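cron nightly-structures :: item 1 of 1
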Amino acid sequence: MKKALLFTLAAVTACGMFTGCAKKSAAEGKVLNIACWNEEFQARFKDYFEAKGLVPDGVTVKWHITPNQDNAYQNRLDQQLYAQEKAPADEKIDLFLVEADYALKYVDTPFTLDVKKDIGLTDADLSKQYQYTKDVMTDKNGVLKGVTWQACPGGFIYRRSIAKDVLGTDKPEEVQKFLATWNDFDSVAAQAKSKGYFMLSGFDDAYRVFSDNITTPAVVDGKIEIDPLIKRWISQTKTYTEKGYNNKANLWSAESFKGAGKDGKVFGYFGPAWFIDFCLAPATKADPEGPNALGNGSYGDWAFCRGPQGFSWGGTWICAAAGTDNVDLIKDIMYTLTCDKATMTAIAMEMGDFTNNEEAMKEVAASDYKNPFLGGQNHISFFLDNAKSIHKDCMTPYDQGFTEKIQHAFADYFNGNVDEQTAYKNFYTSLMELYPNLKK
């Protein structure tokens, strides 16, 4: 049985399985099991919760990290949650993380506990969080099923030295004027090419800008839909590839990040704050163990502006798993890492994250905060308006699969290995193999 169907069956079966499981145990568990797909949350947990001595004595934190690629994390998590009832107490998953692309898959199931009723966070605790971050994790009955420390408005992260060479300025306010619309962006891409630069690293760099602004969900009543903005991404990327405006790299590849190195020729990358801090900045350092300072590769030779279109990308939500015996500890984790203003401010100031507390972000935006990777820029102010306007009306449980399959199928088209019609055919085939319940 396909994993997608297995999970659906498991969710239905589990409806009666965990009756009463949200009740606080007489004794808290001695092992806190956390499932996630990389070390980002692990770092936040260790630096801003564990380092404060907030993990109770006698409790061992056990990490279950499975990469996201090809649905591996979801498949493993599904197996763990399905086995939750029969698992020994110290092996039950207590916390698990989800991304926006597949959050809905877990929100409308009994595997996720009510953040308010079961865990104990209050409306007052949650009042400063950006509304969209709560909307994403609210089920069809209005129950909040997860919380996050980050909000994810995005923009264009560009190389200062390249901007100066191409545009005559590296100042964010001035660069933004040159990139205010997609037509402007295309014009700068041509200018950059004439000077030996790539406007973008590869095929998928602009995908999230388009996909986050769609008005048609990826799946409607079981039918796969391709919004006109996705088709515009395909058209633009084919043009950029043929004209040499990108270097034909796939997202997350070594070649893509190589373009950000000291000798790289990539003008810029689209991304939110987590992409700046967790992905791009480390890739720019010639000496990975060296200082986060100007002179170590291209570190410090970057800046941030809004770009041609506002968008958001990603986000990581913390969910409490039904069957946990660590409710009190989970409440402390959720409060400290997503509600506490001091923690939210510290993460932003120290890590560059745009955190999920509107008051904290306003204060940081108005402060003398300087991001060393961005040449001392306080980029938080560029995010403020976008963060309040983010909506997720077109989310579906199939978004991660849709994104991965369309990017993979059309890489062959961009490279000239297949024609456009064949790329569409391959996309539909691969997506329906992943989700057999869908139709073209």
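cron nightly-structures :: done
The mean pLDDT is 92.
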